[in-house]
Amino acid sequence: MPETIAFAAARTDDRAIAMTICLLDDQLISQIAAGEVVERPASIVKELMENSLDAGAGWINVDIEHGGLRRILVADDGRGIDRDELPLAVARHATSKIDSLDALEAVASLGFRGEALASIASVAQLTLTSRALEADRAYAVTPGEQQLQNDTIRPAALDRGTRVEVRELFARIPARRKFLRAPATEFSHIRKAFNQLALSRFDIGFVLRHDGTEVSRLAPADDLDAMQTRVEKLIGGAFGDHAVAVDEQAAGMRLSGWIATPGFSRGQADRQYSYVNHRPIRDKVFNHGVRLAYRDLLHNQRHPAYVLYLDVDPRQVDVNAHPAKAEVRFRESRLVHDFVFRSVGRALAAVEAKPHAAREVELPVSEPVAPAGGSGEITPRPVSRLFDSPAAAEQPGIAQTRAAYAFQMPTAPMEGASQTPEQAPAAPATPQTDAEDAPALGYALAQLHDIYILAQNRQGLILVDMHAAHERVLYEQLKQEYSAGRIQSKRLLVPETLSLAEAEAAAVETHAEALEAVGLEITRAGPTTALLRGVPALLANEDYVALAYDMVADLGDGLRGPQAVRDRIDDVLADMGCKAAVKAGRRLTLTEMNALLRDMEHTDRAGHCNHGRPSWVQVDMSGLDRLFMRGK
Q1: Share above pLDDT 90 across residues of the chain, in percent, rounded to a whole number
Q2: Residue 343: which region, alpha, beta or left (left: phi > 0; alpha: psi -120 to 50)?
Q3: Residue 537, CB half-sphere, CA atoms under 13 Å: how many?
Q4: What digits encode the pLDDT tens for the residues 172-205?
Q5: Which CATH class is domain 224-353?
Q6: CATH architecture, range 26-171
Q7: CATH topology of domain 394-417+424-471+584-627
């Protein structure tokens, strides 16, 4: 056997290729390692900005050319680097952030690996210029392919801080460069990385330029209003309109920042910014805690928006879990998850408990239009006797009306049918709402287009989306019934046969109790079949077969743990509430409308439906006065 060890490689054209083990040269090692750090221009911007933050910068300037493919320049006014340390700064595994394993376990800086500058220099032309605080001048170094000791240190012009210039990314590795996208696409990734770091430190100013044009300038934010202004500028003003402040402390942790109400939910998770000790992170534990707090407010296909900061003892976080330092591991992950979940949940509950301020709206003004061919005057329509009827002057109680509106809504009149004032149903007169004991949502006045309920309270006008409101009421009732084991099931005269996969059929047996708890009675009838014998009473007239298939499919996918099953059950209950809720086009009586208003007042999170849509808004008297220019 030869002295060198050989391994048989892949066979090509029936010929075995043998390769000997050899040491890779330093340049190739650096280029391979750079693949973990430098994925695209945005990766370079992130690493250089993090170095500037660690250096105590007050301002960070980022200058980009051609989407970062041609040139990236990051300059700061931080502490700078001493002349004699410049060669070490661009060497592999050289850092000032840590010097031992104990320091790594408690690291508080953003960078600590000592790989960024060396990795960048191996795949692009890099020039590092810096001036230390007490130095009389600046110096620059440009790493080359030669050995480090042959690099030259030369005088340079710089007032203070550090400037890193990167040119012609991946010019030395054409195979990597061809995988980069168009300059506009690459710059969009750069801007996202810039925004993410700009949101991590409000006490620092940031400037971003692209091809000579200033794209963003963010002054240091010294107070809460300035912080919120930066958040709105980077995420969008609509986020600010829906933002709710979070500030909770417990067990040595603090969670602060802003979350958006469900009305600002997104189709994708593109407005989620999470930080641990000012480090931007992607963490499943953290994100799931936030998502769980929104569980009853957002549909599965919608994502919450938030900017949240978790401060925790650095020793409780492992930041050395990902080459790009984007992921962390918590030593007490369950504790962190529950703390995030409860903190966000309390903030959302506080909004729902005080819905007036959150849902005050300005109505758009439209000038009256004269009828075609008319005299130019608008003749008011006669008011229906519905509001003049003296019958039933007293308001019925909640208990007397709840059953009537919940499951026995009267059928809406046929399309095109007319009602004369004499045919209008009698209704109780609307009580005065200026008394101290008037309910929060007031009393119903009328129904608009058989979709919205108009009500009057002490503040002014209430507009209610009756379907959204009823959907939330039913959902919360169903959850209570589920917890008490009281969801009613209706037996089918003829069982429905379900054709299933083997895993799904097995899940029917495994999760029989969970299925029965939501009113689905399903029994296995064979290796790949099951019989649907009972369905939720609420959905007896809906497509309950589709519901059964969906539920069994989810269980067959291997939902693990009671929480996963409960999450899916909550989704089913939400769908049941949506399908059973009163639909648009259904005519309601004042009694039914008032019953719905009273139930809303006693329902958790009644301000939004199960899909995150607002269920009601308040228009106060001052807003109404502005519409008609009263007092001007």
Answers
A1: 39
A2: alpha
A3: 8
A4: 777 777 788 899 999 999 999 999 999 999 999 9
A5: alpha beta
A6: 2-Layer Sandwich (3.30)
A7: formyl-coa transferase, domain 3 (3.30.1540)
Beta strands 153-156 and 529-536 are unpaired
Read off the amino acid at residue 496.
E
Fold (topology level) of 487-580: Ribosomal Protein S8; Chain: A, domain 1 (3.30.1370)
Do 233 and 218 touch, CB atoms closer than 8 A? yes
And the tokens for 607? Answer: 């301000």
List the one residue out of 619, 605, 26, 548 whose CA is nearest residue 346. 605
Question: pLDDT (tens digit, 9 = 90+) per residue, 520-561?
Answer: 899 999 999 999 999 988 778 778 888 888 888 877 666 555
**Per-domain residue ranges for the chain?**
26-171, 224-353, 394-417+424-471+584-627, 487-580
- Please list the ranges in the chain whose pLDDT falls under 50: 1-12, 14-16, 145-150, 355-359, 365-428
pTM of the entire structure?
0.70
Backbone angles phi, psi at 154, to 5 degrees: -130, 150
Residues 440-455: pLDDT tens digits? Answer: 899 999 999 999 999 9
Please state, in angstroms and rounded to a whole number, the distance separating the CA atoms of residues 80 and 71.
Answer: 22
Cα 222-228-290 angle, rounded to 5 deg? 120
